[in-house]
Specification:
The complex is a heterodimer of chains A (299) and B (227).
Chain A (H helix, E strand, L loop, with lengths): L2 E7 L8 H11 L7 E7 L7 E6 L7 H12 L3 E6 L2 E6 L3 H11 L4 E6 L2 E7 L2 H7 L9 E7 L14 E4 L2 E9 L2 H12 L8 H14 L4 H11 L2 E9 L2 E6 L8 E4 L3 E5 L15 E3 L7 E4 L2
Antiparallel strand pairs in A: 1-8, 1-14, 2-7, 2-8, 3-5, 3-6, 4-5, 9-10, 10-11, 11-12, 12-16, 13-14, 13-15
Helix pairs in contact in A: 5-6, 6-7
Chain B lengths: L1 E4 L5 H8 L10 E5 L16 E5 L14 E4 L15 E4 L15 E4 L12 E7 L13 E6 L15 E4 L10 E4 L3 H13 L10 E5 L15
Parallel strand pairs in B: 1-2, 2-3, 3-4, 4-5, 5-6, 6-7, 7-8, 8-9
Antiparallel strand pairs in B: 9-11, 10-11
The chains are: A alpha+beta (299), B mainly beta (227).
Chain lengths: 299, 227
């Protein structure tokens, strides 16, 4: 099953309410995915510098030591902000460089995201507990994407929860199952040098889009190509640094509904996730067409 | 009229009341407020009552309906009026997929659009859509009528057993074993009365009729090598 939600605030004046608007949306999707939940937040852009989200299961993990080692090795100040069992590292350096440093020097740490403004928080447990743990209801920002998981393809673990980030500021949540993910994972690993953290089919979809973007495609072009290269059932919500996109497979077995006002645009697996949004009574509400790319912002 | 506000009443209580599980009540008109996209609203009704839902609903609204007249002033999610036996469900907005699935009787009217698999496995009910419908409409339908005033997506009437399909707009493509049929005078008068019942004005002369080519009914000896 799984539930997915996405919210993009068109009106900059309400960006301090991103978490307040977004959290009830995710919580409403608990029935569709009580195993684990995850949220991608886009906020506080650190242009020209790196922002990466890290995870370790130990709540008392010594993140200051990681930042100090990174500062020493990389020759730039790396600051750290602990949020529950996650940590945000920032510094005046390319995000890919910082990510590579963590992967090489601290291989036991999981990199949840890297980029300039993306942060990803995910954990096993009920969506409401996950939201509280990371203080999502109080968070501000421009847009957010979330997922409630009912696992089908791989184990219930923190790493296996969505969203998946495989390239700078790109993330993906997925309701459905892909049938050709094994072969595609092998191809992306052997021909494009991708490293995979999980056995999850959705991580392959995220890597595929990252690969297409790396080849010079726009997100819309990458999604058009995905319609041909990905086999299976899917409704995707994809976040980029300044927008978000939605795509359903041509058969459209997996649900999706969208709503838009002057202030925001939102998508969810079911309308009840949108029913609490301020102004929804006046919103344009519609079901996205199969095999059609929808994009907002600069996505 | 009795008003039920779902901000304070649980869905189970609503359905128990409308199903008259605690005894038949004299009230015949009910209004439901704040549906908030909740699932299974006003399902399994068996009495000739009027229910109006003010807002958007979730899955299976009006499912298994008998006798009741249900109006939704909003959009509906997957499977509105699924397995309806009789009565009428009217949706003022759009419907998500599988609208009217397996309906045995009654009338489902969708004043907006319906998405994929509208009237899938229809078993004798009538479905009238004022707008357009998505792909695989009337998939494996067995009896009943689907009327679409707008356009129809790909694979209309795929693997159709029987059932009549009337379309005023364009048809993207026909599914396996679905073909266009002659619009006889009997068909015209039947369609005319159905449009009156659905409370919509439309010229029956502008409709085309589709049905089963009946080629999938029997094993074809020429295909034996395929097995």
């Amino acid at each position: 099953m799984c539930g997915i939600v996405g919210l993009y605030l068109k009106n900059p004046e309400i960006r301090d309410r991103l978490g307040a608007y977004f959290s009830p949306m995710l919580e409403q999707m608990s029935d569709r995915g009580p195993d684990s939940a995850g949220v991608a937040i886009y906020r506080d852009e650190v242009s020209q510098s790196a922002k990466i989200t890290l995870y370790d299961f130990d709540l008392n993990f010594d993140w200051l030591a990681v930042a100090a080692d990174a500062t020493c090795d990389l020759g730039v100040d790396i600051s750290v902000n602990r949020i529950s069992n996650h940590a945000i590292l920032t510094g005046e350096i390319k995000s890919a460089t910082l990510r590579r440093w963590v992967e090489e020097k601290r291989p036991n740490i999981t990199v949840m995201s890297s980029g300039n403004n993306l942060e990803i928080y995910k954990e096993v447990g009920l969506p409401s507990d996950v939201l509280t743990r990371f203080g999502i209801p109080q968070i501000s920002g421009s847009h957010a994407i979330g997922h409630t998981r009912m696992a089908t393809e791989s184990a219930v673990t923190t790493e296996g929860a969505h969203p998946f980030n495989t390239g700078d500021d790109l993330c993906l949540v997925h309701n459905g199952s892909l049938s050709n993910h094994h072969r595609l994972r092998g191809w992306l690993r052997d021909h494009a040098g991708f490293k995979f953290q999980t056995e999850n089919d959705s991580e392959v979809a995220a890597a595929y889009l990252t690969w297409r973007l790396g080849q010079g495609a726009t997100i819309a072009e990458a999604l058009e190509a995905a319609l041909l290269d990905l086999d299976g059932f899917y409704t995707f919500a994809i976040g980029t640094s300044d927008g978000f996109s939605v795509l359903r497979d041509p058969i459209a077995c997996k649900p999706a509904v969208m709503a838009e006002t002057d202030d925001w645009v939102a998508m969810a697996s079911e309308f009840r996730a949108l029913a609490q949004l301020p102004g929804v009574d006046e919103a344009r509400v519609w079901e996205p067409e199969p095999a059609t790319v929808y994009s907002w912002g600069q996505a | 009229m009795e008003i039920i506000d779902l901000n304070s009443v649980a869905v189970r209580e609503l359905n128990q009341l409308l199903q008259m599980r605690d005894g038949v009540v004299s009230e015949k008109k009910f209004k439901v407020l704040h549906p908030g996209g909740r699932h299974a609203l006003s399902v399994g009704l068996t009495h000739p009552i009027d229910v109006t839902i003010e807002g958007h609903t979730g899955y299976y609204c009006g499912g298994m309906n008998q006798e009741a007249r249900i109006t939704v002033n909003g959009n509906v999610g997957t499977g509105v009026a699924e397995n309806m036996m009789s009565g009428c469900v009217r949706v003022k907005g759009d419907a998500s997929q599988s609208a009217g699935a397996t309906a045995h009787g009654g009338l489902l009217v969708i004043e907006g659009d319906a998405s994929a698999r509208c009237a899938i496995s229809l078993k004798g009910g009538d479905v009238v859509v004022f707008g357009s419908v998505g792909h695989m409409a009337a998939f494996m339908a067995q009896a009943g009528r689907l009327v679409v005033l707008g356009d129809v997506g790909d694979d209309l009437g795929d693997s159709l057993y029987e059932a009549d399909i009337y379309v005023r707009g364009t048809v993207a493509s026909l599914g396996a074993d679905c073909e266009e049929k002659e619009m006889t005078s009997d068909c015209c008068s039947e369609l005319e009365s159905l449009l009156v019942e659905a409370e919509v004005a439309a010229d029956v002369a502008k409709f085309r009729r589709f049905g089963s080519a009946r080629n999938l009914y029997h094993f074809n000896i020429d295909n034996v090598g395929e097995y």
